[in-house]
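Weekly sync, protein design subgroup
Attendees: M.S., D.O., the rotation student, P.L. (late)

Item 1: inverse folding check
M.S. brought a backbone from last month's batch and wanted to see whether the design step gives back something sensible before we order anything. D.O. pointed out we never logged the input encoding, so this time it goes straight into the notes. Structure tokens as presented (475 positions):
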């Protein structure tokens, strides 16, 4: 199953919110069970935060968070007391599950998004989504830690974790989405559009990097497949607009840009018959191309036209269609750059391209060998900057540039569409759109009555004394 950063964040926040509703009381046994897991939890959180591209050499917010989590990750937060026997208590399974999810998010973020400039709002939103659940876990552990002399140091550490987490939890849920939510790990054996695209991209990279030489068929196949990918991305974006997942004013320019790239790749796939490449046909690329086209037909097509929005949504199994379109454009843009580089190297590099002798233009290239070849109707080496080669290069360059531009517009749809507002000091946590967030003072309802008993977010009862407020973070 395809795992995305957004999907793992959903799991992380759901686990944290379930924890926040557990009844708590000071217990040395439960506290020790949680304390065993916290070094791993802190380390996984640090890995995830450090894998978010900050876009700057020094990030004060990240330095502050690291300084709080580092002592816990190094297991320096609980004093070693040799007089007391080590407690043989199994680790807490709920915190272990949160640690695993945070580790998975860190692994996905390490993949990154190629050629995407870091967006400060997306970075802030992602950090908020990572630290808000950790804040809940810290408050929960604080509530179970007995008020004993040996627990004073770890309690202070957890209060710092809760405080910095509270600062990031101020960020409204509507301001947290970003392009990094789309990063995904895709099993190549999966029967899905994402798997078909990744298999095709791998085959494309192998075909363009082959030492046996490129063939015109391979370049035509890649260009045609890129046209199909752009068509699929446009259809998916249109579906997201029709179903209300993407606003019309934000999605329509994206569809137009992707459609322009689709048209340009169709033009680039029309390989002239007067040019010959000596490479062999890549069977791996051919198989991946067939699989990609069939998957797009099964997922997005209905006969000779694109399927209706409800049909596509059903076939996509409830996925975020705008995110699926963005992932498609990430694949298309990467392959487009590779295709353009290969074509550039063919016609302006050291590779040798053959052309039909009778199609050669320009008297400067005419010599005895060329006249002999023209009389016999054979192939000759293509001169540099020959018009037909320049036209092939120009078509590939125009299509690649259009794909890159469409990708940037598509990525912009991942940014929040709501206007930022100044949050009020929170008194409880809320679960909004699958995310934990701070909520202003309201009259508590029966299910949330217990959550307001302890500042700053009331994680259970019998917890620590109120901790000082964390640093304010402006959205």
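Designed sequence read out in the meeting:
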């Amino acid at each position: 199953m395809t795992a995305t950063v957004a999907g793992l964040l959903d799991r992380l926040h759901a686990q944290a919110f379930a924890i926040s509703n557990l009844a708590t009381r000071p217990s040395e046994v439960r506290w020790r069970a949680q304390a065993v897991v916290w070094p791993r939890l802190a380390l996984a959180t640090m890995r995830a935060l450090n894998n978010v591209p900050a876009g700057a050499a020094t990030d004060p917010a990240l330095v502050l968070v690291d300084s709080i989590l580092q002592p816990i990750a190094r297991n320096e937060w609980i004093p070693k007391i040799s007089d007391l026997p080590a407690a043989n208590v199994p680790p807490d399974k709920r915190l272990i599950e949160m640690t695993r999810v945070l580790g998975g998010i860190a692994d996905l973020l390490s993949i990154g998004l190629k050629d995407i400039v870091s967006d400060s709002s997306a970075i802030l939103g992602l950090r908020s989504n990572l630290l808000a659940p950790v804040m809940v876990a810290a408050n929960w552990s604080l509530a179970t830690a007995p008020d004993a002399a040996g627990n004073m140091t770890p309690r202070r550490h957890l209060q710092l974790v809760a405080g910095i987490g509270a600062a990031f939890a101020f960020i409204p849920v509507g301001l947290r989405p970003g392009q990094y939510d789309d990063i995904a790990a895709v099993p190549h054996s999966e029967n899905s559009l994402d798997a078909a695209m990744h298999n095709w991209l791998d085959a494309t990279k192998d075909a363009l990097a082959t030492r046996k030489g490129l063939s015109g068929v391979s370049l035509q196949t890649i260009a045609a497949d890129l046209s199909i990918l752009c068509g699929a991305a446009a259809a998916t974006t249109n579906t997201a607009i029709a179903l209300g997942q993407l606003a019309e004013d934000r999605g329509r320019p994206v569809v137009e840009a992707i459609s322009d790239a689709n048209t340009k790749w169709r033009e680039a796939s029309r390989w002239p018959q007067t040019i010959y490449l000596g490479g062999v046909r890549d069977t791996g690329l051919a198989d991946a191309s067939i699989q990609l086209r069939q998957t797009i037909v099964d997922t997005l097509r209905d006969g000779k036209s694109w399927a209706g929005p409800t049909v596509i949504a059903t076939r996509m199994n409830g996925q975020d269609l705008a995110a699926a379109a963005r992932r498609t454009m990430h694949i298309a843009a990467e392959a487009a750059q590779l295709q353009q580089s290969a074509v550039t190297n063919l016609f302006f590099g050291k590779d040798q391209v053959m052309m039909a002798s009778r199609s050669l233009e320009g008297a400067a290239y005419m010599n005895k060998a060329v006249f002999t070849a023209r009389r016999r109707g054979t192939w000759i080496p293509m001169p540099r900057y020959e018009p037909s080669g320049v036209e092939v290069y120009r078509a590939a360059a125009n299509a690649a540039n259009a794909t890159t531009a469409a990708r940037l517009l598509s990525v912009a749809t991942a940014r929040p569409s709501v206007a930022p507002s100044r949050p009020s000091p929170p008194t409880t946590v809320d679960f909004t759109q699958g995310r934990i967030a701070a909520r202003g003072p309201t009259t508590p309802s029966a299910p949330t009555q217990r959550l307001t008993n302890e500042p700053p977010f009331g994680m259970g009862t019998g917890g620590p004394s109120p901790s000082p407020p964390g640093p304010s973070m402006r959205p």
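Discussion: The chain is about 55% helix and 5% strand. Residues 191-412 form one domain.
Action: P.L. to compare against the previous round before Friday.
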